[in-house]
UniProtKB/TrEMBL annotation:
Residues 508-521 have a biased composition (Polar residues). CDD domains: vWFA (cd00198). It comes from the Bacteria. Keywords: Membrane, Signal, Transmembrane, Transmembrane helix. Residues 26-212 form the VWFA domain. SUPFAM superfamilies: vWA-like (SSF53300). Gene3D superfamilies: von Willebrand factor, type A domain. This is VWFA domain-containing protein. The chain crosses the membrane at residues 563-579. Residues 507-528 are annotated as: Disordered.
């Protein structure tokens, strides 16, 4: 019961008052009950997800619950999110273990999206292990699964995007078709994330809620302090901590201590074994402190008259591409001009990874009554948090939204190894402004346009015992600029024992420049040259050098200013090349001597 009360407080406390006046969101939670979830969700995190969803949504929202496997069901039809609706959600848990044999994601998304009411602000939250698995057998099954998956990507997702339906995909296992979920979320403007634990699942739902109903926060600094100004009517401190650890303590500007067991009657304090939610109305202005260890996902949501607004922040950023930003302060629905803004106000945007490391940052300059700028492109792919902070001596306002950083172009080797499919992810790239080239061990390969934003590269048959690299590059003309992309090496026969083992290509989202990959392959002895021609050896040596650069880049950036560093590197590389070449020549000579003469 205490956990339920906490979730209710979380829903009502973190939902900003201004957001409740917006178009009421219609949230449809689509939960996988296929048989594969027995292995991929053994902890039944889906049950936690339903409880989270029932309480995170504000009372103004509409909600519905859907389950799918071989068939699609709607055990909780669309209704206003109220106490009765939340109570019905709690009774649905047993149905999540009523497993079905197959996983028809296409049908589930289509039926949930098409169901009444035809609302304008529609969000689908898909919880699944993300593997298309349709009823069939033999080769027909593989074809049906592949055809359904392709229809989801090329037909259904664009259709939903055109209707304004947003799909947020949360994978409840690492054993997942993450490229599928990422592409659906990317196309429809939603988020994609993997949640293996209850904490990650709560974080994913908070991130989704931030996109559905964005609201203001104030930052917690490295000393666990936050500043409250006299314009703030209420704050809600959501403080995460490890299980078994005492709840944190809040200390006000006047030194008054607020603890779980000792706090004023107007303060509402709810606890669980992993987090505390503290609602403080009419808080004293000044610096507040948090005592006790708290997690990185802790946050302070606020209700205030002066708020931070922005044009819709994108859910998807593209590697190497900058992102334009436009923000402003508002009060009572009106934009604050320069004469009404706090003196000395500055605005800054930062993109951080989920561990808090800054990937990109830029100040936003005043322009009319707004602040505008461009966030530089980044190299790192995956989930990140985009933070916009408006700061003056008198006040701080902050918006935090999770985004997906994806590659502008992706390349995937077909299952039979006969072709490579390259797809343009960035909306400004297509066959009219982008030219591709590909080569296999120095020989050019034919690139054929197979769609408005898709190319197919036919690859020749090769020795199945050799893992050979295909290099792909692209040049595009975008916004008056010529951009060059080099995709990660696509490896033919990736499971072969001969060749390099780096540059994993089974990832559906790849890079528009060099992809970082810390899993460098290793070569045993002189197998480096087995079965390869001189040109193949040269290509692989280049590939190996590229992998080495990805690994060495952080160190080079640190020591690269020292001339002695480059001298040492040059000597080592030259010695390594000479040693390998000498060993290869020696082995060939020995091989010829051992041949019997007839």
């Amino acid at each position: 019961m205490r956990a339920l009360l906490l979730m209710v407080m979380l829903a009502t406390g973190l939902a900003p008052t201004w957001a409740l006046a917006q178009s009421a969101p219609d949230v449809r939670i689509v939960v996988d009950v296929s048989g594969s979830m027995k292995q991929n969700d053994p902890q039944n995190l889906r049950a936690n997800a339903l409880g989270f969803a029932a309480t995170l949504l504000p009372p103004s929202a509409r909600g519905s619950i859907w389950t799918f496997g071989t068939t699609v069901s709607n055990p909780l039809p669309s209704g206003t999110v109220a106490d009765a609706w939340r109570g019905r959600v709690a009774s649905l848990s047993p149905q999540l273990t009523d497993y079905q044999q197959f996983t028809d994601i296409e049908r589930a998304l289509r039926q949930a999206a098409d169901a009444a009411p035809d609302s304008a602000n529609r969000h689908l939250i898909l919880l699944t292990d993300g593997m298309v698995d349709l009823p069939a057998s033999g080769s027909d099954k593989a074809q049906r699964d592949s055809a359904s998956r392709q229809r989801i990507i090329s037909e259904l997702a664009p259709e939903l995007a055109g209707r304004g339906v947003v799909v947020h995909a949360i994978a409840l296992s690492n054993n997942v078709d993450l490229p599928l979920l990422e592409q659906v979320a990317q196309t429809t403007g939603g988020l994609a994330a993997v949640a293996d634990t209850p904490e990650e699942l709560l974080r994913a739902f908070l991130d989704v809620l931030d996109r559905i109903l964005p609201g203001d926060q104030i930052p917690i600094d490295g000393q666990q302090r936050f500043s409250v100004d006299d314009d703030i009517d209420e704050f809600n401190a959501l403080l995460f901590h490890d299980p078994g650890v005492d709840s944190p303590v809040l200390v006000g500007p006047d030194g008054q201590r607020y603890s779980r067991g000792d706090h004023p009657g107007v303060v509402e304090w709810q606890s669980s074994d992993r987090y505390d939610l503290v609602t403080v109305p009419d808080p004293a202005a000044g610096e507040w402190r948090i005592e006790g260890d708290i997690g990185d996902d802790s946050r302070i949501g606020i209700h205030a008259d002066t708020v931070l607004r922005s044009t819709p922040l994108p859910a998807t950023l593209y590697r190497g591409f900058s992102t334009p930003l436009d923000v402003w302060l508002a009060s009572d629905g009106e934009t604050l001009g320069a004469d009404r803004r706090p003196d000395g106000l500055t605005v800054r945007a930062e993109l951080k990874d989920l561990d808090g490391a800054v990937l990109a940052a830029t100040p936003l300059d005043p322009s009319d009554d707004h602040f505008r700028g461009e966030l530089p492109g980044v190299d790192q792919l995956g989930n990140a948090r985009l933070t916009i902070t408006a700061r003056s001596d008198r006040m701080i306002r902050q918006q935090v939204q999770t985004v997906n950083v994806v590659a502008a172009l992706s390349a995937v080797l077909s299952e039979d190894g006969s072709q490579i499919v390259v797809r343009a992810n960035h909306p400004d790239l297509d066959v009219n402004n982008t030219q591709l080239s590909a080569s296999l061990t120095g020989r050019s390969l034919n690139v054929r346009q197979t769609g408005e934003r898709e190319w197919t590269i036919a690859v020749p048959q090769t020795d199945p015992g050799q893992s050979l690299p295909v290099t792909i590059a692209a040049d595009a003309r975008v916004g008056g600029r010529t951009l060059h992309f080099e995709l990660p090496v696509v490896r033919l026969n990736p499971e072969a024992s001969v060749g390099l083992s780096g540059a994993d290509l089974q990832r559906g989202i790849t890079s528009d420049s060099r992809q970082q990959d810390n899993s460098l392959g290793s070569d045993d002895g002189d197998d480096f040259t087995d079965g390869l021609t001189a040109s193949q050896m040269a290509d692989i040596a280049v590939d190996k050098a590229q992998q080495g650069w990805r690994f060495a880049k952080p160190y080079v950036e640190t020591y690269g200013q020292r001339p002695v560093t480059w001298i040492i590197i040059a000597v080592i590389v030259l010695a390594w090349i000479l040693l390998r070449w000498r060993n290869a020549v020696r082995r060939r000579r020995l091989g010829r001597r051992e041949e019997p003469s007839i």
